[in-house]
Fold this protein.
Amino acid sequence: MNLCPASRRIDPPLQRSTAGAPHPVYSDTSLKYKSKRAGYKRLHDSGFTLLELVLVMAVIGILAAIAQSGLLRPVTVRAREAALKQDLFVFRDVIDQFYADQGRYPNDLSELVELEYLRSIPPDPFTRSIDTWVAIPYEGDGGGIVDIRSGSEGVSSDNVAYSEW
């Protein structure tokens, strides 16, 4: 091992000459490589590394998953909630009309169809069945159905059970 300071290689400073002539180290214009501390890099190479491409694809995948779960699901849930609200409004309105006309509440939902207050019993938007409607009985004299609720066990976007609407 040689410890003599004179044996070290000293690179010339990387400054342009004041006369406008190119620097002696970079005077050849046909050089394809430029010296750097970490090694050599081609001057005309450009592009992305594999790591950069993988990271971009991962970010796109994450954004797509968020968009799919965050946008598509609530649209269908909101549509079913709107349909349930409309069905419950119509049922309750028809029950009130039946009471005003007949002086009593209907015994079951099929009586509303038989007496042409409804064309048919609509299916519950969440259970997709006409048999899951929950009839709330009248507690006074005469009996009958005073209210109707959904038979779904789900919870709305407002954190209220559909069966409590």
Q: What stands out?
A: Helices lie at 50-102, 109-114. The CA atoms of residues 28 and 150 lie 84 Å apart. The longest strand covers residues 145-149. Residues 50-102 form the longest helix (53 residues).
